[in-house]
Write a structure and sequence with these properties.
Blueprint (H helix, E strand, L loop, with lengths): L6 H10 L8 H6 L10 E2 L5 E5 L2 H4 L12 H6 L17 H15 L3 E5 L2 H4 L9 H16 L3 E7 L5 H4 L8 H17 L5 E6 L1 H10 L11 H25 L5 E6 L4 E3 L4 H14 L1 H9 L4 H7 L8 H7 L6 E4 L4 E5 L6 E4 L19 H13 L4 E5 L17 H19 L4 E6 L19 E4 L4 E4 L1 H12 L1 E2 L1
Parallel strand pairs: 2-3, 2-12, 3-4, 4-5, 5-6, 6-8, 7-9, 8-11, 11-12
Antiparallel strand pairs: 1-15, 9-10, 13-14
Helix pairs in contact: 1-5, 5-7, 9-11, 10-11, 11-13, 11-15, 12-13, 12-16, 16-17, 17-18
Length: 485
């Protein structure tokens, strides 16, 4: 188990990671003879710096203290569904080690932490009688964060649907939306005295399309377009119902939002016509998720193109989906690019060349300007007054060097460049209030199992030893400066 680290000891560990490198730090580089002065890139006073994770990816303890099975338990235990047959049975053993990991967060300087609640740890059968041991775990874990001076941001659904609800149709069944709202309201009633920010769902797009269309995530189905669009509607309806349930059950000052991964439509060139095309594209490419949540209507073009496959809905459901939010969280990783076009859409998506740079995950193309354009386009389109980057980070082929350290220079490069573009956004008045790095720890990366590492702290999954990476030092310095050098 990880030993307790003092701030000084943590700095020693991180400092040792660069001892062998001829690096003098950004201040020294800025003052080097003959170099032009480097302008600091500050973030606003009070900007929040944190990390993010999800219950099934880190907790382990899959069969302890009354937790019921989720679709990810079933999926990961099905032969051929995950890399090397990996499961989240143990993961990072965060269920037992959270106090040590929270100590790591504190030593890094984190001021906020995003976690998710396991639905089947609270309601083992999805509905019915709550499991008090599950409730107690989250109360104790949140209390440990608060004691460390870290504000908790809770996500109520990060893909781990109780298996009993999947057996009844999962998100194909409209009843699941109501069951989710009932669960969300219950959790808010028990935790909102401690947790002041709740996100209903994480990445509706991902769990709908990867789980029900492509079949590469739980529950592993490949359904027709008509069924998938109806599932997407049930999911955004579940979000809206959950917003209403949280407001009804939580203490008065609780703030409600969601975390979504919009398709980020970067303009091919920053010229007037391509920027205008990027605005049109953002709204249309996110029509079934973020756009309907923000506007309470599906775009005409979306419904027209679906034809008979369009979802069935009522005006009342649309009003529920558009229940007002206090903030919006967005997960930003890879870019898409668009150019202006004279056709009906007003834009065309550009297919990237095979040479486009990627991180360790094949899907993770590198487009730092996405962290500018995602919040910028949202602010322009919907005048959102409070946003958070609820996920951003990168996979790397991390290895422990012979000196015992992990030199993830590619992740440092990725984070530095993305954060530069986020700073550009906030400096222009885009109201991003905080950033949650994905992730503090290497963890179970869904179908990729343990083959892809996203953490800034290395985890030896055989021993559960934690090793801070070079990127930990980078992030700690960003937090200390509240900006980039």
């Amino acid at each position: 188990m990880l030993l307790s680290f003092s701030r000084r000891r943590f700095a020693q560990l991180l400092g040792a990671a660069t001892a062998a490198l001829p690096f003098r730090g950004v201040d020294a580089l800025a003052a080097a003879p003959g170099d032009a002065a480097v302008r600091p890139l500050p973030f606003p006073k009070g900007f929040l710096w944190g990390s993010a994770t999800a219950s099934y990816q880190v907790e382990g303890a899959a069969k302890e203290d009354g937790r019921g099975p989720s679709i990810w338990d079933t999926f990961s235990h099905t032969a051929g569904k995950t890399h090397n047959g990996d499961t989240g049975d143990v993961a990072d053993d965060y269920y037992h080690r959270y106090r040590d990991d929270i100590r790591l967060m504190k030593d890094l300087g984190l001021t906020v932490c995003r976690f998710s609640v396991s639905w089947s740890r609270i309601f083992p059968d999805g509905t019915g009688s709550p499991n008090q041991k599950g409730v107690d775990f989250y109360k104790q874990m949140v209390d440990a964060m608060l004691e460390a001076g870290i504000k908790p941001y809770g996500t109520l659904y990060h893909w781990d649907l109780p298996q009993t609800l999947q057996d009844k149709g999962g998100w194909e069944n409209r009843d699941t939306a109501q069951a989710f709202a009932d669960y969300a309201g219950y959790v808010a009633s028990r935790l909102s005295d401690r947790v002041k920010h709740f996100m209903t769902t994480n990445e509706i797009r991902s769990f709908v399309e990867l789980g029900y269309r492509e079949g590469i995530h739980a529950p592993g189905l490949r359904l027709s377009r008509a069924k998938v669009t109806q599932i997407a509607h049930h999911a955004v309806l579940g979000h809206g119902l959950a917003v209403q349930a949280i407001r009804a059950k939580a203490v008065r000052d609780t703030r409600v939002g969601l975390a979504e991964n919009p398709t980020v439509t970067n303009p091919a060139l920053e010229t007037e016509e391509h920027i205008a095309a990027a605005h049109k594209a953002f709204r249309e490419e996110n029509a079934m998720y973020l756009s309907v949540i923000m506007e309470g209507r599906y775009t005409d073009l979306y419904l027209k193109q679906l034809g008979a496959d369009a979802p069935k809905f009522t005006p009342e459901e649309l009003r529920t989906i558009a229940s007002p939010l206090d903030f919006l969280g967005i997960n930003v990783y890879a870019p898409t690019y668009v150019r202006a076009d004279a056709g009906e859409r007003g834009y065309v998506m550009i297919s990237p060349p095979s040479s486009f740079p990627k991180m360790a995950s094949p899907w993770l193309t590198v487009g730092p300007e996405s962290l500018y354009w995602a919040p910028k386009l949202i602010h322009d389109l919907w005048k959102v007054k409070e946003m958070y980057i609820t996920e951003n980070g990168a996979s790397s082929d991390d290895v422990v060097a012979t000196d015992g350290h992990v030199y993830d220079t590619d992740r440092v490069m990725y984070l530095r460049n993305y954060l530069m573009h986020l700073q550009r956004a906030v400096s222009q008045g885009v109201p991003v209030k905080g950033y949650f790095l994905w992730s503090l720890l290497d963890n179970f990366e869904w179908a990729d199992g343990y083959s892809k590492r996203f953490g800034i702290v290395y985890v030896d999954f055989a021993t559960q030893k934690r090793i801070p990476k070079l990127s930990s030092q980078f992030y700690a310095e960003v937090i200390r400066r509240n900006g980039l050098g």
